[in-house]
Amino acid sequence: MTSSSSPAEQTPAADSPVVLYRERQWVPWYWWLMAAFVVVISTATVSLNRGILWVIIPAILLSAIAVWALLTWSNTVVRVEQDSDGTRWLTVKEAQLPHDVVARSTAVPATARRNALGPQLDPAAFIVTHGWVPEHVMLVLDDPEDPTPYWLIGSKDPEKLLAAFLPDQAGASAAR
Prior knowledge:
Blueprint lengths: L1 H14 L2 E7 L4 H18 L6 H21 L3 E6 L5 E5 L2 E4 L3 E7 L4 H5 L8 E3 L7 E6 L8 E5 L3 H8 L1 H9 L1
Parallel strand pairs: 6-8
Antiparallel strand pairs: 1-2, 2-3, 3-4, 5-7, 7-8
């Protein structure tokens, strides 16, 4: 009984993927200040010339709503993991992409963001972006079963993300 439970306990650790890169895209710190300012002004407006409960209850409710909204906007996590078989996976929100279906990749600088998200955007592309993350990674797919032509993912450090997910392509693009 001990020998049968021992491999079962070791299997998840042996099969668990190794995290090569992880990035959480928090809203900027000054958004928290703006949210606090909005809560104070709104609470003052609602509680004007009223009792103390008209200060406490709106302050608690509006603070909870502000914290919930900011944390919800900050829930995007970009992660690169490597399986035990060597496959690297890019996980963004609930979507996963294996490295072997990526034909080309590039870092999109902040200066090219407008074109990448505007006139040159393919409507079938998979996009995860936020206004406070100016740089992106573009991953062009070569998968006949997937109608998605490319992924465009916002990243605070696109070069590091590419180096973790596609080290061969990242090294080739850096040499150019």
